[in-house]
Amino acid sequence: MERVKIGEWKTVFQGKLFTVKQAKARLPNGKMKVFEKASRTPSVAILAFDNKNRLILIREYRSSKKKYRLGLPSGRVDPGETPLHAAKRELAEETGFYPKKIKLFYKTEPAQSYEYVHFVYLATNLIPRKIDSDEYEDITSVPTTLSKAYKMVKEEKLAGKETMRSICKLYWNKKIMLKKLKI
Which pTM was predicted? Predict the structure, then answer.
């Protein structure tokens, strides 16, 4: 069986967050086609629990939406930074806490035409440690129970599909996951 022959991938757009590449391809029937794929900088989110076993959500102003949103501490993985380091940094920048215990909960896998990996961490044993951010961010911490956060997901009061997915995944598996972290 003859396969698709794909040429060299060439960057047609390079932005701060996204890159778009194209490649010419010859199909088995001889026709030519252009394939595209987009990639995005990896990101992290943190399901962090304070010393009262409350999940730390953040209330953050999003200028692109011109409104506040409620979600998880999260952000991009900077060039040369590991996802674990990014998770610790983002948690400290956005909540003022640094985790003594942190563990990868799950990561997403890239799709065929959209290459993006999102790492979600579980964090406990938080200690105060604010890291200054270079950017102005209007963020406040909002501690809540996991049950209330799950209810907010069901009522669509939280922003972002990965935030909602992470909270649901933890809520459904909370006995196993929280036992591993001794919460």
Answer: 0.84
Q: 100 and 24, same structural domain? A: no
Pairing status of strand 74-76 against strand 43-48: antiparallel
Dist. CA 157–CA 79, nearest whole Å: 32
Q: Residue 53: which region, alpha, beta or left (left: phi > 0; alpha: psi -120 to 50)?
A: left
Contacts 24+ apart (CB under 8 A), 62-66: 62/159
What b/e string do you get for 8-24 counting C-beta neighbours within 10 Å, with b at 16 or more?
A: eeeeeeeeeeeeebbee
Using CA atoms, how far apart are residues 71 and 90, in angstroms rounded to an integer? Answer: 13
| Same domain as 106, residue 176 | yes
User: Are 12 and 65 found together in one domain?
Assistant: no
Residue-level pLDDT, tens digit, the chain, 183 residues: 688 999 999 999 999 889 999 999 999 999 999 999 999 999 999 999 999 999 999 998 877 778 888 999 999 999 999 999 999 999 999 999 999 999 999 999 888 788 889 999 999 999 998 766 656 678 889 999 999 999 999 998 987 888 999 999 999 887 676 666 665
Domain of residue 132, CATH code: 3.90.79.10
Identify the domain containing residue 21 by its residue range.
5-39
Count other Cβ atoms within 10 Å, centred on residue 60: 18
What is the spatial distance between Cα 11 and Cα 121, in angstroms, rounded to a whole number?
32
